[in-house]
Amino acid sequence: MRTFPALLTTLVAATAVATSMLVPVIAGASSHREAPLISQDPAADNTDVYAFVSPDRPDTVTLITNVYPFEAAYGGPNYFRFGDDVLYEIHVDNNGDARPDITWQFRFHTQVQNGNTFLYNTGPISSLTDPNWNVRQVYDVARIDYLSDGKTKTTVIGGALPTPPVNIGPKSTPNYDYLAGFAVQTLTDGSKVFAGQRDDPFFVDLSSLFDLLTIRKLPGNMGGGVDGLAGYNVQTIALQVPIPLLTHNGAMPSGPSDPNAVIGVWATTSRLAMRVLPDENPAGQDSAFRQVSRLGQPLVNEAVVPLAFKDHFNASQPKDDAQFLGGVTDPELPKLLHALYGLNVPPAPRQDLVTVFLTGVPGLNQPANVVPSEMLRLNVMIPPTAKPNRLGVLGGDTQGFPNGRRLADDVTDIALQAMAGVLVEGYNVAPNNQLGDGVDANDQPFMPVFPYVSTPHQGFAVGGTYQPPQP
Ligand SMILES: [Ca+2]
Ligand SMILES: [Ca+2]
Ligand SMILES: [Ca+2]
Questions:
Q1: Ligand 1 center to residue 324 CA distance, Å?
Q2: 465 C-alpha vs ligand 3 centroid, how far in Å?
Q3: d(CA 93, ligand 1 centre) in Å
Q4: If you ran DSSP here, which 8-state letter would residue 57 be given?
Q5: How far apart are the first and last CA of the chain?
Q6: pLDDT digit string, tens, across residues 308-318
Q7: CA-to-CA distance for 374 and 354, rounded, in angstroms?
Q8: What are residue 103's DSSP bridge partners?
Q9: Distance, CA 247 to ligand 1 centroid (Å)?
Q10: pLDDT tens-place string over residues 399-441
Q11: What's the 205 CA to ligand 3 centre distance in angstroms?
Q12: Residues with Cβ within 8 Å of residue 252, at least 6 apart in sequence
């Protein structure tokens, strides 16, 4: 595991005075190990959130949150899984007031079939109910609707749903894709769901950016980067929800300008505030959950929020984000770009960055009467494009980041260029609009269908290509 990056230390020292800003800068993975406490709790560590109109089912939106950074595919025999003691949630604000209107809750339960073996499996796993599969995990899904009278309505929409096994190797998990396909389930409200191990879809040159913002091959759009997340897996939770089940009025919006067309999305994890050994006091399980991780936009808590406030940010709510705003729009990264690379960057205050990262872009994904807050904002009526551009809106593709976030959106390059001021008149020039980390795509192709996130890397394959035993 990496030590806390020197760049962040530098950034934090430089920004300690300006503690109230909440403007993202870039210094690494979108939110992998971004805050001190959560870096010690990977099962509850949100790494990325995605929200996009499903390319093959444009009447639905796909919401994805990943947790558990840097899973090595061969990490057995106690392989990676979700935390049974973690509450995983995805939230949607569909009226722009920074308060959730819908929350989906996911609770996982590990089931050991045979406690007399240390093995994850005692033979090939050929189905999700194969008796050879010893350590399994199932989960429940509940939808919470926040009603206008301040009350909530909780509906259980899935129970004891299967997760797939991890991808061990050709003997243990042959036909992995076929097997994992059975873990795509339909919830009682018609939504689809998947939870299980996947390839980490985020791609970024971690090792160079963490080394004082090094771009290996300037200005960055010439390739030459090294994907620091290549080969690693994460735990994915993915939902595919019909659009009328997401909007404030419960209807399909009439078009992109319909006030109900924009939703805000973020994810959280929570742990019990008080832990009591169940044998001594089973009622202890009823103690309240406390939020320990929060993630919407990539890269915000990773690098902007000063070290002293990172854990506080993870415990905070979007409705309270004014505490981080404070009117300060003077991020440190553009100054570093100027100092390190001589870039001419716009002066503070940077209202352009507030628009991109906190309020949404007017006419695209900014709700009426928006309360500035940190979350992904998606206009669900921008139809999927046949030719996605990895630079999203900066590349003229309004279906991509910062209008929601697709798996292939290069948020690292987008954030670097935005920080350099390409949205400000007079600054959309070279090299500002050529910045990047030299990594343009994921190490694995994405799937054309839900859950879209790629097959997890196989443990055995990490050591080489499988050679069948000779007779
Ligand atoms: Ca709301
Ligand atoms: Ca990957
Ligand atoms: Ca990139």
A1: 19
A2: 29
A3: 4
A4: -
A5: 41
A6: 677 888 899 99
A7: 10
A8: 91, 144
A9: 10
A10: 999 999 999 999 999 999 998 999 999 999 999 999 999 999 9
A11: 8
A12: 59, 243, 244
Structure tokens at 155: 């509906």
Token pair in block for residue 352: 């352009």
Residues bordering ligand 1, an ion, CB closer than 5 Å? 93, 95, 97, 99, 101
Sequence ranges of the domains in the chain:
30-201+227-301+367-419
Conformational region of residue 363, where left means phi above 0, alpha means psi within -120 to 50, and beta covers everything else: left
CA gap 363, 361 in Å, rounded: 6
| 398 Cα–ligand 3 center, Å | 18
Report which of 471, 451, 466, 447 is spatially closest to residue 172, judged by C-alpha positions. 466
Confidence at 300, pLDDT banded by 50, 70, 90? low
Give distance in angstroms: CA of 444 to centre of ligand 3.
15
Distance CA 466, CA 471 (A): 15
Closest CA to 303 of 234, 206, 394, 218: 206
Q: How far is CA 51 from CA 277, 404, 409, in A?
A: 38, 5, 11
Q: State how far the Cα of 200 lies from the Cα of 50, in Å rounded to an integer.
A: 12
Residue range 202-220, pLDDT digits in tens: 999 988 887 888 888 888 8
- The number of residues making up the chain comes to 471
* Gap between the Cα atoms of 120 and 124, Å rounded: 11
Say how many Å lie between the CA of residue 233 and the centre of ligand 2.
7
Find the 419 Cα to ligand 3 centroid distance in Å.
Answer: 14
The two tokens of residue 278 are 């169940």
C-alpha count within 13 angstroms, C-beta hemisphere, residue 183: 28
Q: What is the DSSP letter of 338?
A: H
Residue 359 DSSP class = I
Please tell me whether residue 419 adopts helix, strand or coil conformation: helix
pTM above 0.85, yes or no: yes
